[in-house]
Amino acid sequence: MTTTATFLVHAVPAAALELVRRTGRDAAGQRVEGRLAGGGEPLRCCLRDAEAGEAVLLVGYAPPIAAVAYREIGPIFVHTAACPGPDHGGGYPPGWRGRAQVLRAYDRQGRICGGRLHDGADPEAVIAELFADPQVHQLHSRNVIYGCFMFVVERAGG
After folding, report:
1. CA-to-CA distance for 35 and 157, rounded, in angstroms?
2. Which domain holds residue 57?
3. Is residue 74 part of a domain?
4. CA atoms lying within 13 Å on the CB side of residue 60
5. 31 with 113: CB under 8 angstroms?
């Protein structure tokens, strides 16, 4: 398990997921879609891939940035019931190493201010490179093919 003192990786907040599960509505006000996982769906509640047969929800989610033009609502998979969350200690999700991702950089106003495609081999180096720019407030990891939100990366200590 890799952890680092320079950044923290965050899953979708449990409170946001509890609201979706309780109301059956997502960030766009649409009904959530329940299904059994085929296996391999990236779960944003615990930052690992689903195993075949797990009960999951497909929901629209708006990642945590200010309500500006760059704010998007996109599809994510989460467990149908509350789960314990990630067990990676705040570091890069170990099961997603080697997976190509886009890291999109945002400033404090929620505007895109950079980004980088990486192959997943050394994500910490790419994260450090992007955070070397003091304008960068947080990073969003995104799926390369579909562009879906994966997780948030923040500087340790805020």
Report:
1. 38
2. 9-79
3. yes
4. 11
5. no
Q: From start to end of the chain, where are the E strands?
A: 7-10, 33-36, 42-43, 48-49, 55-61, 74-79, 101-106, 112-118, 138-143, 149-155
**Model pLDDT for residues 99-139, shown as the tens digit of each residue:** 999 999 999 999 999 999 999 999 999 999 999 999 999 99
Structural domain includes residue 125: yes
Q: What does the pLDDT look like over 27-74, one tens digit per residue?
A: 999 999 999 999 999 999 999 999 999 999 999 999 988 888 888 999
Q: Is residue 53 located within the same domain as residue 103?
A: no
Tokens for 71, please give them.
Answer: 């704010």
Whether residue 4 lies inside any domain: the answer is: no
Q: What is the pLDDT of residues 26-40, one digit of tens each?
A: 999 999 999 999 999
